[in-house]
């Protein structure tokens, strides 16, 4: 099970990922896919697995293909926390991307087994240094956060749906996490600020010490107590399907942090380590969008990821 | 006349700027301004003047206020190439910015004296190492290019109007310049590529060895034979009026290059010098948008510009 190795690091810490495991129908301007593996936890856990031991918390339904479980197992992902609920089908999302991929519509959303889902954490999962509370109902994210020791580094992602429908739950979650990862349009909805810099500062006032605002093809911004950091996106020329890019970004970010701070050490990444992890997150996100579903994310490897990180370094190098 | 000084540089080279000098009416979501000094050459020459001797080529009409000439003179700008045509009023543009400033409509455009304008270059202008062919009819840009020696480093900017109405003239111009500076939506219209990376490569195939695509609040991309360079925008929180930001960017860019390559030297900036100049261009553009017209651009100084460059460096610093 190949992983990224960095100089001067020992064993990586572990990353727990909670979120959705889904079957998606996706329509893009160029192609379509039906019943393809998706969900925030799928993308995030696969991305994290290139860096650190990843543990998945989620639920699948009675229609879930066991071969799809193998896709996680092949990357060494611990599935002890993945429940199977035979009372109904797997979470299903159908969406359509518009020209330029700069907007998408949700055509159908069926929570299915997620309506009854109550995350249960295997005992060993408590020992994870990092937890990614992937996009899912904020009450489930909070439930998992509270099951974990306080010293676990908790990062959360969300989408506009939860901002609009479960705002109070989301605000409560923000007071309990270390890092909030959100995209630019969601940051605007949540804070009311159209200016991204103002939005980032306003988000920090809601609780999290660290904020990352993702801007898709325009890169990402880190708001840190020590200052701001801006990183452009990887220069992708073959965009196929943006689904899961944000989840892969978050999974790779926590995976890279797990490598940088190491097993058995406090999960207290420095500003420099967070920047470094963003390079890896950006590289992995760029791979994700070059194919449907998790295909490209599964077919890549440490060498390709490192190559993209190297290119990103030259892309921003001043001297 | 205070200018930016850089270590290890002698006398700066000179920058010729051709473009419009205008009176604008501007409506933004927050405020409006009437008959305010504008035009591509005004912004670009003022921006260049913080770095290098700037020479202006343009025309004003019978309504031009002599006090506005003083605004250029105060910054040491050579106005020998600025004609006064008493047969009509100065170029006039009226525009309205939409919420978020991400779109603007031209409400009125009166070329006035620009309809009859034929740029005439004073003899000393021939000795400029750098020429900025600012936004203006491409046939006028070409005329000026052809009046100058071949070894002059020529950069050009344009707007969607010329791409749509004078495409062939613009394509001819592109074969005669070194650097083309264009914004992302214009690059898309000109090349047909919605992907910015593809658009940049396609633009290089149209002639210019160097391409800069500006993305407003998302920064700018340099396409160079040696590779790509991405720079985020300065984190502006008080956007007042984006008019002229692109012109100021271009003027400061050539001004900074003039400092970096120096007087009497071939105007052949390296990849590293171009990156360095983009820092200055980004800093100066960020000042421009914080007030109406050229106000902020005139009230700033080398210390403030250097401070923004320093902040930009920390914004993108990886280690």
List the main descriptive attributes of the protein structure presented here:
319 residues, homodimer, alpha/beta, four-stranded mixed β-sheet
Q: Give the terminus-to-terminus CA distance of chain A.
A: 37 Å
Biggest protein-protein contact in the assembly: A-B, 32 and 32 residues
Percent helix of chain A, as a range, is: 25-40%
Placed side by side, the strands forming the largest sheet of chain A appear as 5-4-1-8-9-10-11-12-13
The quaternary organization reads as homodimer
Work out the helix count of chain A.
Answer: 11
Strand tally of chain A: 13
Which value, in Å, is the CA radius of gyration of chain A? 18 Å
The ordered H/E elements of chain A are EEEHEHEEEEHEHHEHHEEEHHHH
Largest sheet of chain A: 9 strands, mixed
**Poorly predicted ranges of chain A:** none
Beta-strand percent range of chain A: 15-25%
Mean pLDDT of chain A: 95
Report the principal-axis shape of chain A: globular
Structural class of chain A: alpha/beta
Walk me through what this model shows.
The structure is a homodimer of 319-residue chains. Chain A is an alpha/beta fold and 319 residues long. Chain A is 36% helix and 23% strand. The first copy, chain A, has helices spanning 40-48, 66-73, 138-147, 160-165, 167-174, 184-191, 196-205, 245-261, 271-288, 295-299, 302-316; strands at 15-18, 22-27, 32-38, 54-60, 78-84, 91-97, 104-110, 130-133, 153-157, 179-183, 210-214, 220-224, 227-231. A nine-stranded mixed beta sheet of chain A has the order 5-4-1-8-9-10-11-12-13, with helices on both faces. In chain A, helix 3 links the parallel strand 8 (130-133) and strand 9. In chain A, helix 3 (138-147) runs parallel beside helix 5 (167-174), helix 6 (184-191) crosses helix 7 (196-205) and helix 8 runs antiparallel to helix 9 (271-288). The longest helix of chain A is centred in the C-terminal third of the chain and has 18 residues, at 271-288. Chain A is globular and about 55 Å long. The termini of chain A are far apart. The mean pLDDT of chain A is 95. Chain A binds chain B through residues 99-100, 194-198, 215, 217-219, 227-232, 235-237, 239, 272, 275-276, 279, 313-319, and chain B through 99-100, 194-198, 215, 217-219, 227-232, 235-237, 239, 272, 275-276, 279, 313-319.
């Amino acid at each position: 099970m190949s992983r990224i190795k960095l100089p001067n690091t020992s064993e990586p810490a572990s990353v727990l990922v909670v979120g959705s495991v889904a079957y998606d129908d996706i329509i893009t301007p160029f192609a379509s896919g039906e019943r393809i593996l998706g969900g925030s936890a799928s993308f995030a856990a696969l991305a994290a697995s290139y860096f650190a031991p990843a543990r998945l918390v989620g639920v699948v339904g009675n229609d879930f293909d066991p071969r799809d479980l193998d896709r996680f197992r092949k990357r060494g992902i611990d599935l002890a926390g993945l429940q199977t609920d035979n009372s109904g089908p797997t979470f299903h999302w159908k969406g359509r991307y518009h020209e330029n991929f700069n907007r998408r519509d949700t055509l159908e959303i069926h929570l299915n087994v997620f309506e009854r889902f109550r995350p249960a954490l295997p005992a060993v999962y408590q020992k994870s240094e990092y937890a990614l509370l992937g996009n899912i109902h904020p009450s489930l994210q909070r439930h998992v956060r509270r099951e974990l020791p306080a010293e676990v580094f908790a990062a959360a992602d969300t989408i506009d749906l939860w901002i609009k429908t479960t705002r109070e739950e989301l605000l409560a979650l923000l007071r309990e996490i270390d890092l909030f990862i959100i995209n630019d349009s969601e940051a605007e909805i949540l804070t009311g600020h159209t200016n991204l810099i103002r939005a980032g500062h306003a988000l920090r006032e809601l609780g999290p010490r660290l904020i990352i605002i993702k801007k898709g093809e325009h890169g990402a911004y880190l708001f840190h107590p020590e200052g701001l950091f801006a990183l452009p996106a990887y220069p992708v020329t073959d965009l196929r399907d943006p689904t899961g890019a944000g989840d892969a970004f978050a999974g790779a970010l926590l995976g890279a942090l797990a490598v940088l701070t190491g097993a058995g050490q406090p999960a207290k990444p420095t500003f420099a380590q967070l920047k470094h992890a963003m390079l890896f997150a950006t590289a992995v996100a760029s791979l994700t969008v070059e194919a449907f579903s998790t295909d490209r994310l599964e077919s890549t490897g440490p060498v390709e990821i490192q190559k993209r990180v190297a290119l990103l370094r030259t892309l921003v190098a001043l001297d």
